[in-house]
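INFO batch 0412 | record 1 of 1 | parsing
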Amino acid sequence: MIELHRVSKVFSVGPVKVPALSDVSLRIAKGEFVVLTGASGAGKTTLLRLLYRDDVPSEGEVQVLGEDVASLRRSEVAALRRSIGVVFQDAKLLPARTVYENVAFVLRVLGTPKREITPRVFDALRTVGISARAQAYPAQLSQGEAQRASLARAIVRQPSLLLADEPTGNLDDAMEAEIIDVIKDIRAGGTTVILATHQSRLVRALRRRTITLDGGYLLKDEG
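INFO prediction complete | emitting tokens
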């Protein structure tokens, strides 16, 4: 499913080279739920960006779903991303579109036949428990509802891989628990999940395989 072999990523800030990842190697099997943790600046977001080919490694090899991401052409990157759902700390919903329209937009971009769009959107909304808010606009949603809508948008394409970057960072404890339950349900359906968080309490509560980054290095891989 996912394999990183001696991956490093260095950013240039003027004349200064800033390492974000250093010599990271790991494997994640199909269907796993993996927690990626570490302090801010540890390299979590950089690693996720490499997985959905928003960036490429400076050194080493990143394989996702059998593809070497650095060697993909633009059309092949688009094909890879159809199999990957991404959720961020900020729900990033389109403010002028309803929940239904936000989720349906993904399918329209992918060229999904019109007759399939409505049933697939409502399947996704039911999965995350927000179908009753389908006609609401983002400004009318609570933070928890907005994050559920973001999850629905990520899974409506029926991805093989879900990447969640601090998905509960803006939520209170009760909303956090609800979102984590939804993500667990998504994983139970066969989707591989990588959840990035800096919250040690959440890491302990999840009790999943945990990969810890520290200053761009893989510090621990446990569970």
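INFO post-check: The radius of gyration is 17 Å.
INFO record closed
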